[in-house]
Structures are given as C-alpha cells and as structure tokens.
Specification:
Shape: elongated
Order of helices and strands: EHEHEHEHEHEEEEHEHHEEEE
Largest sheet: 5 strands, parallel
Mean pLDDT: 85
Helix content: 25-40%
Distance between the termini: 25 Å
Strand content: 15-25%
Number of strands: 14
Structural class: alpha/beta
Radius of gyration: 20 Å
C-alpha cells in the first residue's frame, strides 16, 4: 500500500516541523509550502491526498486557497483540513461553507490531528489497505477481509486482522506498542499498551495453523515492541 501524501501549508516553520514529525511517525509522506502560490503549485504537481491548510498566510488567506481548490474541477475533491487560531463560530462556519472538510483550532494535540487525518482519508476512500498481500502461502485479502494459508481459511478476530494487515503493509520495521495503538486502534482511542500484547498473542495463535505455522513472522523486538519480518522464512 502506498503511503498517503499530506501537503502542509503554514508560514511558520516551527509549526510545519511539528506537523511533519507527527505525520511521518504515523507513516504519512509530507510535502510543505509556506504561501498560497507554492502550495497550489504543489497541489497541481504532486497531487497530495490531503491538505492541512492554515487560515492566515502571506500573500492571501488560506480561505482564498480553499476557494481556488474547490473551484478547480481537477482538485475540488481534494480533502482539506483547516488549521487556525480563529475560534469564532462564524469563522468555522465560513471555512466549512467554502468547502473545508474539517476544522482544527490551534493549539491542538498531534494525536487528535492524526485521528482527524485518518478519518478524513477513510471517508474519502484514500489509502485504504484493500489490496491482496502475500508472504509465502500466507495471504491476506483486504477486499474480502479473509486470511488464508494456502487454500485454507484462517479464523481471527477483527483486531487481529487489522494488526496483521498493518504489519504486512509495513514489513521489516519495529513499532512500539504506542505506535501500534495509534495505527490499528486509532489515535483517539485510549486503551492500555498491554492490550497490544494480548492481541499479538491471539494473532500468533491464529497463525499457528495445521496447514502452516506463520506465527514467527510477528517478532518481538526487545526494548521496543514488535516487527513483521519474512526474512529467513522457510
């Protein structure tokens, strides 16, 4: 699955850095602009999957850029989240009326932002991991929500399915329990980190099939968390 690209439009470098760090940790690709002209050029050239757009920008307001995006047939379906310190209700309504898909006021928690970004991308049908992924005889079909070992169906719960789907989409990288909670459960869901260990055990048990044992694909990384790796398999 290709990572979704987010265009960050803000004239303050420190805010762009903070947003980029939070998004990259969550496996998004980021591109940046500090003014309307550069931002719209990136929209046309890079075709981002979502725009985080500040209201107050040099050379014109973010609202002006939002109008331009929504008037252009090629970009009007591009999801846009407005980021602004303007909290007055009429400002919020104005932004939504012009075509903003969501509205977040500063200051905001990075976890909330990531949750809003993911929710909007899901609603837009962008970056959904519905492809068929395979490691040896282990197959995950995102469209039918089935896991197979050879021709044999593997029974597992929905959380274990999402865990496996995430791992197979992001192999050979170690993730902390906190990162897995954000990626699989959602950044706006607050559960204990040990919940991850419980579902990892269930996932490994599901992968211990009479038709093939793939439980060792889910590796424990001491001092960090877990990793999906097919190296040395078979």
């Amino acid at each position: 699955m290709d990572e979704a690209t987010v265009l960050i439009v803000d004239d303050e470098g420190a805010i762009r850095d903070m947003l980029r760090m939070a998004l990259e940790i969550a496996d998004f690709r980021c591109i940046e602009a500090e003014n309307i002209h550069d931002a719209f050029t990136l929209v046309v050239d890079e075709r981002p999957d979502l725009v985080l757009l500040d209201w107050m920008l040099p050379g014109g307001s973010g609202l002006e850029m939002l109008r331009r995006i929504k008037r252009n047939e090629a970009t009007r379906d591009l999801p846009v989240i407005m980021l602004t310190a303007k909290t007055a209700e009429d400002n919020v309504i104005q932004g939504l009326d012009v075509g903003a898909d969501d509205y977040i006021t500063k200051p905001f928690a990075p976890r909330e932002l990531i949750a809003r970004v993911r929710a909007l991308l899901r609603r837009s049908g962008i970056g959904q991991p519905n492809e068929r992924m395979q490691v040896s005889e282990l197959v995950l079909d995102g469209e039918s929500k089935r896991v197979l070992i050879g021709d044999n169906s593997v029974e597992m719960g929905p959380t274990e399915f999402r865990l496996l789907q995430f791992f197979m989409s992001h192999p050979e990288r170690a993730y902390t329990r906190s990162q897995l909670l954000d990626q699989v459960w959602g950044a706006n869901v607050y559960v204990e980190e040990r919940t991850v260990d419980v579902h990892i055990r269930r996932l490994r048990k599901s992968l211990q099939s009479p038709h093939g044992d793939y439980s060792n694909l889910i590796q424990t990384v001491r001092g960090t968390g877990y990793r999906f790796s097919a190296r040395g398999l078979g």
